[in-house]
Amino acid sequence: MSRLHAALQDFDALDALAARPTALSRLDPRVKILATLGFILTVVSFDRYTVAALLPLALFPLLMAALGDMTLRSIGRTVLLASPFAVMVGMFNPWLDQRPLLSLLGYPITGGWVSFTSILIRFGLTVAAGLVLVASTGLPQICAGLERLGVPQVFTTQLLLLHRYALVLAHEASRMSLAHELRANGKAMPLAVYGPLLGHLLLRALQRAQRIHQAMLSRGFDGQLRHRPSLRWQRADTLFLALCGMGFALARQVDLAHLMGQLVLGWLR
Amino acid sequence: MSQPVVALRGLSYAYPDGQQALRGVSFAIGAGESVGLIGSNGAGKSTLLLHLNGVLKPAAGEVLIHDLPVMAANLAEVRQRVGLVFQDPDDQLFMPTVQDDVAFGPLNMGLPLDDVQARVAQALATVGVSHLAARAPYRLSGGEKRLVAIAGVLAMSPSILVLDEPSAGLDPAARRRLIQLLSGIKHTRLIATHDLDLVLDLCTRVLVMREGAIAADASPEVIFADAELLARCHLEMPLSLQRRT
Amino acid sequence: MHMADALLSPAVGATFWLASGATLAWSARQVRKDEREYLVPLMGVLGAFVFAAMMINFTIPGTGSSGHLGGGLLLSILLGPSAAFMVMASVLTVQALFFADGGILALGANLFNLGLCTCFVAYPLVYRPLLARAGAAPSTRRMSLMAVLAAVIGLQLGALGVVAQTQLSGISSLPLSTFLLLMQPMHLAIGLVEGLATAALIVFVRQARPDLLALPSAAYQTASARRVFPGRLMATLGAVALVTAGSLSWFASSQPDGLEWSIARTTRQAGLESPQSGLHAKLSEVQKSLSLLADYKFDLAAKPATPALAPALGQATPEAAWPAVDASTSLAGVIGGAATLALVLALGFVLRRKGSSAV
Lengths: 269, 245, 359
What we know:
In chain B, about 40% of the residues lie in helices and about 25% in strands. By secondary structure, chain B is α/β, with parallel strands linked by helices. Chain C has two domains: about 5-250, Arp2/3 complex 21 kDa subunit ARPC3, CATH 1.10.1760.20; about 270-315, no CATH class.
């Protein structure tokens, strides 16, 4: 139940973030989508034992968050609470891969720990990039961008409808769940209660769908979706995309962290 | 009356489970009239309203809008002339933003984009929610949602406005704002409602429904003075009238 | 279980994106061709329902653990395979974007595992044939059985998908057998849960409002019965699979295994035994005590060296204590990493303050 509440709050919070006008929201959503995709591809294209070289790429989500006027805390919390599947699988690496790979100040570090750290960093970077995309752009704009990039309109329309009614239905579900909890005397929900409870929710959802359909018909809907979002690609968009592309390519080809380390060591000596 | 804009003749309809919802309903509404439709829950008010723009098809009888029979061939025109505002604005505001939603109707009418934008701006201004144009529907209060729903219907330039329980769930201030808006517009109005005081404020004629049929059709003064009729239809006098006596 | 970006390689991620994307485009065409315009609002609301339903857990009788609805099978029953696939795609998209449950690159893979395997395999190949044979009004127990069978098969396939995608990507070190041993039984339980939940819902709605079940979905189902296995779609998917398998296996055979190659590069030796002292000795002890892992221990020396690396390997040197790593190289890497991180964070804070003062 608390998980439901927390999830709904996060959902709401991301939408609220996206609604504010910032420097980032002025960019065409297509640019932000493409930049995020490029970023993720760059991150996962590294060798499994890469750790330091990944770090300069953290600049991208940080930059986006700064431009979008988001606090690190708002994004960071969801990153920490995100699905831990990658971490759970990655945790096996130190057990399984015990070949020493490098030595730091006399202590050997196995390949397993290196690859596990790499997984953690990848996880943090990719999750952060996705969250920043949603928080800066919002789903309606993302769908507009997707449509112009060739995604079928049936899909984006349906995605937007899901987004529109997810909170409505989730609140209904939360109320029904609470009503049960208050009479459950501490016991968890058995299947015999779950069936009718969710069944009622499903019934109401089906009836709501019928009413929405009637409302659509009442305003002249004939099956064809005529909503065409207008997007304008401007010079700032091309510039942003080019900069990102060059940045990713640079970080991929040159181990910037290593370079910096050598500079520091050279300066220390 | 000279030329009824809405005419029902012998309308009958049954629910899918067989229960009879409408039994031979007949009445006519003239241009510019403001009519209240009252009755207990289950009397058939919402079902009746859905016949006015062809969402439901009667088993018997007919509906005429500006002398146009409501049938498959005329649906587009009927739905432009009859603007139906649903009971739950959440069912009606399904687009991502307010202005997208208000534009839905005009876009379906096939109008050019400039026209659509002009209509959207006009409708939002009429209703007084221009400042909410870029807002998402779930960030609106109940009263604001109701007003946006009305704007979405007004943008299609209907001649007849049909509202299903418009004041339900509104706080007193929002309710007052709604009444002010509805009293200011010149469309022919049919308002199905439990809010009997709203009927007193807005309507010059009252239709009383009971078990799928029209039980009475007169002015509010006559209807609300008939205690026996009200009791039979599971209704009572408007609260403001009760306190006076 | 949702696949994550962190475990994916670009090749695998892109391949599954293409496969799922093609299926989505095809499904969109099917839905558009359908003349019933109530399908779009129905799909949207049912997607919201699945999303909301995922948040309510029920207890599995006898075990004390809890489960929740996945949705693929239920949606297929209510909407038909193509529409259900699209709804699953939107549910997964919202989960990925808003809750970081599955990554953006992994979306293609997740849609394949949780959408394609349930809507286009489990439903038409298992549930529908069983339903056809069950007669007009199957009993609750019969429906539960059918739903459980279909859900289990669908989820097993999905779990196999996750394992395959992880293995092919090569970021995780989990050997195939261990991974399978972990995933498949777990998804057996999840499939049981899914089937029971789906059956409970369908039975309830059938009793309460059979007209709601019959309306759009039934007609759509029978009409599209022939459309589920279009020759073109299967040919496309088959070609994609062949190309992927072919190119990846070429890569695997012509280059040494990623792990060996990386070690050979950094240590200038290869295939070392882990030194029996300090941290490593302790780890080995613990590992041996975990009998499960002991049998499936990742052991480079035991693994046959790939052809490309064999000449360079020669014999493994068992007595090597520390690898002959260039100490300054590793130190530079670590220092550089820390410095970069600090710099990046600092820049982030500076920009944030600048940004908020400008607003």
